[in-house]
């Protein structure tokens, strides 16, 4: 018969003591955990702020759309009422003018050159939005042979700012495309007491010539558009004589459609 095997009694091994962790490592772990918690907290705060801002921007855009539609319906109603009474409706004077340079430096008087510099029209096809008032119109008359201007519609203002809109950003006034509302809020939020925080605010302020028109206009870089499809007729001749220069009122919108 096979002898039965006898197992040896188990002897417990002595426990190894864990090596003490250096204090510097413990401090580093604690610091990293604190940083991670702070980062997560800041990220959640940013997400909440972005969500709130997005809702505010959407609410403002809806309010502006209602305002524009109300203006259009009021205009139609007033015209119909005037026609029914056998008269004519005379709309309000335009508040904003879009000015664009169409000629270069040839045969230019120094005073004319200085006025163009003040208007920020340093290159051909540069354009700016200006408030309609007596000093501005007097300056436009001085440089009229070198510019064309008119009264932009809401569609023109929106298309120019969305497609050709650049802003002065930072201390160096860098030319940065308006691709994010954060750029606008950072540059104009404090200057306008929070009234201008998104691109729809910029469009509304320019189109209605609001109280912050000056800040918004100075923030916008002069618009640079392309040459018009089909070219010009006669740059040196006034618009009412078949040329291109001078005031073309609402027809500036047709020209900008060919250039934008």
What does this entry look like structurally?
The protein contains 8 helices and 7 strands; from the N terminus they run αβαβαβαββαααββα. The chain is α+β, with helices and mostly antiparallel strands. Strands 6-2-1-3-7 form a 5-stranded mixed beta sheet, sandwiched between helices. A two-stranded antiparallel sheet has the order 4-5. Helix 4 packs across helix 6. The termini are far apart.
| Biggest pleated sheet | 5 strands, mixed
Mean pLDDT equals: 90
Which sequence of SSEs, written as H and E, runs from N to C? HEHEHEHEEHHHEEH
* Terminal CA distance: 107 Å
Please tell me how large the radius of gyration is: 33 Å
How much β-strand is present in the residues? 5-15%
Give me some keywords for this one.
single chain; 260 residues; alpha+beta; five-stranded mixed beta sheet; two-stranded antiparallel ribbon; 11% strand; elongated
Short description:
The chain is an alpha+beta fold. 48% of the residues lie in helices and 11% in strands. The mean pLDDT is 90.
Q: How is the secondary structure organized here?
A:
Blueprint lengths: L22 H62 L11 E6 L8 H9 L7 E6 L2 H9 L4 E4 L3 H11 L1 E4 L4 E4 L3 H8 L10 H10 L4 H7 L3 E2 L21 E2 L4 H8 L1
Parallel strand pairs: 3-7
Antiparallel strand pairs: 1-2, 1-3, 2-6, 4-5
